[in-house]
Each structure stands twice: as C-alpha cells, then as structure tokens.
Write a structure and sequence with these properties.
Number of domains: 2
CATH architecture of the largest domain: 3-Layer(aba) Sandwich
Strand order of the largest sheet: 3-4-5-9-8-7-6
Largest sheet: 7 strands, antiparallel
Number of strands: 9
Order of helices and strands: HEEEEEHHEEEEH
Distance between the termini: 177 Å
Oligomer: single chain
C-alpha cells in the first residue's frame, strides 16, 4: 500500500517589529512644541487683550470724569460771572424818612425783607440777601442786616465794649457818607458767625449795618460806599 504522506508543517510567520522612524518622532516633538508655543501665545494675547481693555476702560472713565469736571467748572464760572454781572444792575434801598432816610444801592437780584418799619417807633430792621430771604434767626447768614436803632451812637458803641474786652471783636475807625463810624470785625455777638458790623450816627439814632460772613465783605464794602442819609 502506498504510504500515507505526512502533512507538511508550516512554520508560523513572525510579525515584523514596528519601527518608528526618526522623522515621525521629530514631527511629534514639533507638534507638541508648536502646540505649547501656540498656547503660550494665546495666553499672552488674552492677557494683553484683557489688560488693554482694562486700560481703555480706565482711560474712558478718566476722560469722562475730566469732561464732567470741565463742564462743572465751566458752569460754576458762568454762574459766578452771571452773579457778578447781576450785581452791576442795582436798586436803591430807602429807609424811613423820620429816621434820616438812609439809602444805598444793592444788587437787583437780591431780596429785601422789612421786619420792622418803625412806623410806630422803635427800631427799623431790614434783611437783604441774594435770591431770597431765609427764615430769620440769629444763626442764619444774611448778606446784609440793616438796623436803625432808636438809641444814640455812644450807647450803642458801649454795648460792643465787652466783646472788645474779650477779644471776640476788633474795632477801627472808618468813614461812611462823610461821618465817622466804628467798624467791628470778628465774632458776631450772640452767634457763632464771623462777619463785620459798622455803626454810625444818624441824627439822634444809630445805624447798624452788618454782614454775617467774611465771604460777603466785598459786597458789604460796595454797599457801604453808596450809603447816603439826611443829617
């Protein structure tokens, strides 16, 4: 009998090892580096963008603030200019005839309040203030208080002596409408206000003109320069 042939055994084929080429390694490294650089650039760009936006916002805020300040300053200057211009337009204040008919010029924009017209004797009292008269109190600041007291000059001057002795007031001689007057400066008696008081004789009475603030002294002096009365 023919002999049976044994099947041929086939040796397993070994897989060839995967060899990573140097070029592939370089490409991977370059990709990683490029990604890292891109990330850094992106971070820097975002940082610069945020910084620039913040600086722009600050700059815009500062510009707006400066514009607001400039507008406010311009309005203030215009208001002051308007106020000064308004002072040039004046009215004449006139007191009672029986009390020497004291008169003077005052800004037309000011208001006048006659608290006591002395029609039945006693003191004549008036208040003048820019725009409007505030409720009358000892502590309210008025541009001008006008009193014609039914007392002689020496008696009124004596009332201020104790304030001179305390150092709360100082006094100097001045002239109003051609007559000698006492000008007191410092703390207004009975108040916490600092201002100026001028007293002078009108017939048998005494005129007392007072401003309640040192800031109003220029206006006060201007009014004093226009004072007239009947001797």
């Amino acid at each position: 009998m023919p002999s049976m042939q044994q099947p041929l055994s086939v040796a397993p084929v070994a897989k060839a090892p995967v060899v990573v080429k140097d070029n592939d390694k370089k490409i991977k490294i370059i990709s990683i580096v490029a990604a890292a650089v891109f990330a850094v650039i992106a971070i820097v760009f975002v940082g610069l963008f945020v910084s620039a936006k913040t600086e722009y916002a600050d700059l815009e805020s500062n510009v707006n603030l400066k514009i607001d300040e400039a507008v406010s300053e311009a309005k203030t200057e215009q208001a002051l200019a308007d106020a000064e211009e308004a002072k040039k337009d004046t009215r004449i204040f006139t007191g009672p005839t029986d009390y020497g008919q004291l008169s003077f010029d005052y800004p037309k924009s000011w208001s006048v309040y006659i608290a006591s017209d002395a029609s039945k004797g006693g003191d004549f009292v008036a208040y003048l203030n820019p725009i409007e008269i505030e409720p009358v109190t000892d502590s309210t600041v008025y541009a001008l208080r006008v009193t014609i007291r039914d007392k002689d000059f020496e008696a009124v001057a004596a009332e201020y002596q104790k304030y001179l002795d305390r150092g709360e007031l100082s006094v100097e001689a001045t002239t109003v409408a051609g007559v000698t007057a006492n000008r007191y400066s410092g703390k207004i008696p009975g108040t916490e206000l600092n201002g100026v008081i001028v007293i002078f004789k009108i017939r048998d009475k005494t005129a007392v003109l007072r401003t309640d603030s040192t800031l109003l002294v220029d206006d006060f002096n201007t009014i004093l320069s226009t004072v007239k009365f009947n001797v």
